[in-house]
Design brief:
By secondary structure, the protein is an alpha/beta fold. Helix content is about 35%, strand content about 20%. Strands 13-12-14-15-23-22-21-18-19 form a nine-stranded mixed sheet, sandwiched between helices. The protein has a seven-stranded parallel sheet with strand order 5-2-6-1-7-10-11, with helices on both faces. It has a three-stranded mixed sheet with strand order 16-17-20, covered by helices on one side. α8 links the parallel β10 and β11. α1 crosses α9 and α12 packs across α18. The protein is globular, with a radius of gyration of 25 Å. The protein binds glutamine (GLN). The site of glutamine has 10 residues, from β19.
Length: about 525
């Protein structure tokens, strides 16, 4: 079968969930047995989101090949179990960088280099790159931003050109918003009409409209939208608010979105998507009665997108443990010895978040000391693990001035220190220890038992590491280094075996937890939290 291209654009407002719709389409097509990939084109000029503050763009996701990516790639992986790479997330910065490199090499043979055709050709080349591998039946391309933005114009123009080139092998899905005006007691279709008009002005007639809405859009309203927007009535589907994003594929299938896409791209419709395992997950989610309370200690708590993958991993882990998740955000900057007891004692488990820099770090130490002394299941991720090590060094090893050189460059007890290969680096973009690395686990460790294996691969994003000079000291005093990189001997996992569940990992397990394959460490952490809560009663 020839590769089919599905373009997903958005209009009216941002944050409508194009990533979730794209992921849902991918989920359904994969469940029908097709080979699918999703890619995101982001109109900003940064080369990648690795240098962006979470306040700007939420979490930075890391692909297996070490690419620092938009958080939507996390949704793609969670919904499809298909790993992404650098090829799945392109920014305007990368497009321009590549065009400018070609210009400097003289590849344009004296021509004036322009947005059309040179930038658009580069965009088109990148859109088709994964499709051209022959590995995919469907390539879903999500265009970041909102139709009408100045910066997304070259992308929309590229899609317009590709529609001509690809003919029936292409379908355009446009996501809009249908607001409810309480005073008029009415859902309003006008913004959708305007947004489609904008797209039409730019030369694109959408094939399918997905209407984000908080209330049911009546058949009558859908017909009206279909009529005004030149779209077939059955191709106007609604995406109404649902209790969990994982219900969206089911809602889309109920309205035949997958079948409409197949029909429009000339693919024979055979049977139904195999969604048994997915439905089993949703059923578990719905029927769970008891609640497990997990605290997330970090400095971006007012911004849930900053910890997107952790949130989702915890939801998945709670579901497979037959519990609902109550996630309690604890602001590390506001936590101190005076309020720690009140804040942490209602919890069944505590997760210490990843992060960078000094802000909020003392609160993480306060939380960790409390968790260690009260023997609460505790999970440290990346900076969270480094804080575990520092807190243990200060309190148990008696090194009161122990620190990470990230926080205090001249600390005499640098239990966390800059990795050797990081010392000569001056460019901040894309230069951390990034991507998937091997880790060997000690067979008798809690971590190895959770994984059910001793050799794992996990994704990293950091510059600092546990200083091996202190390793024996830690081991002798009860903090074991149970996971290490076999090639470099970097410590990747620490545990305090004498505690119920006290594990710190230098890597990011949250990037690889999916609906159908929840991450074993998250599942085991939540299992321990549930056991602890039952024990407390
Ligand atoms: N700031 C720490 C480092 O660079 C931890 C990074 C993280 O938590 N992702 O090593």
């Amino acid at each position: 079968m020839e590769t089919k291209y599905i373009f997903v654009t958005g209009g009216v407002v941002s944050s409508l969930g194009k990533g979730i719709i794209s992921s849902s389409i991918a989920c359904l097509l994969k469940a029908r047995g097709y080979r699918v990939t999703i890619q995101k084109f982001d109109p900003y000029i940064n080369i990648d989101p690795g240098t962006l503050n979470p306040y700007e763009h939420g979490e930075c996701y890391v692909a297996v090949d070490g690419h620092e990516a938009d958080l939507d790639l996390g949704h793609y992986e969670r919904f499809t179990d298909i790993q992404t790479t650098r090829a799945n997330n392109i920014t305007t910065g990368r497009i321009y960088q590549s065009v400018i490199d070609k210009e400097r090499r003289g590849d344009y043979l004296g021509k004036t280099v322009q947005v059309v055709p040179h930038i658009t050709d580069e965009i088109k080349r990148n859109i088709k790159r994964l499709g051209n591998t022959g590995n995919f039946d469907f390539v879903i391309t999500e265009i970041g931003g909102t139709v009408g933005d100045i910066e997304s114009l070259p992308y929309i123009e590229s899609v317009r050109q590709l529609r001509w080139e690809l003919g029936n092998n292409c379908v355009c899905v446009h996501l809009t918003y249908v607001p409810y005006i309480a005073a008029a007691k009415e859902l309003k279709s006008k913004p959708t009409q305007h947004s489609v008009k904008k797209l039409q002005e730019l030369g694109i007639q959408p094939d399918i409209l997905v209407l984000r809405t908080e209330r049911d859009v009546t058949a009558e309203a859908r017909h009206k939208i279909a009529l005004f927007c030149n779209v077939a009535p059955e191709a106007v589907v609604q995406s109404i608010d649902v209790p969990t994003i994982y219900e969206v594929p089911v809602k889309m299938h109920e309205q035949h979105l997958d079948e409409i896409i197949l029909r429009k791209t000339g693919v024979a419709i055979e049977g139904e998507p195999k969604m048994d395992a997915w439905m089993h997950f949703l059923e578990k989610m719905k029927t769970a009665e008891k609640t497990v309370r997990i605290g997330l200690v970090g400095k971006y708590v007012e911004l849930p997108d900053a910890y997107k993958s952790i949130n989702e991993s915890l939801i998945q882990a709670a579901t497979y443990n037959d519990h609902k998740l109550k996630l309690v955000y604890i602001h590390s900057e506001k936590l101190h010895s005076g309020n720690v007891d009140e804040q942490l004692s209602p919890l069944d488990g505590v997760l210490i978040a990843p992060g960078f820099g000094q802000r909020g770090i003392e609160g993480k130490f306060v939380a960790l000391k409390w968790c260690r002394e009260h023997d609460v299941p505790t999970f440290g991720i990346c900076l969270g693990m480094q804080c575990m090590v520092i807190e243990f060094a200060r309190d148990v090893l008696g090194l009161a001035d122990a620190n990470s050189t990230e926080m205090e460059q001249s600390t005499p007890n640098n239990v966390i220190d800059l990795m050797e290969e990081q010392k000569s680096i001056s460019n901040m973009g894309g230069t951390m220890r990034l991507g998937s690395f091997d880790c060997h686990l000690q067979p008798d460790s809690l971590t190895a038992k959770a994984y059910g294996t001793t050799d794992i691969k996990e994704r990293h994003r950091h510059r600092f590491e546990l200083n091996n000079r202190y390793r024996e000291d830690f081991e002798r005093n009860g903090m074991r280094c149970v996971g290490e990189n076999p090639a470099t001997h970097l410590v990747e996992v620490v545990e305090i075996p004498e505690k119920r569940w006290f594990v710190g990992v230098q890597y990011h397990p949250e990037y690889s937890s999916t609906v159908l394959n929840p991450h074993p460490l998250f599942v085991d952490f939540v299992r321990a939290a549930v056991a602890y809560s039952e024990n407390k009663k």
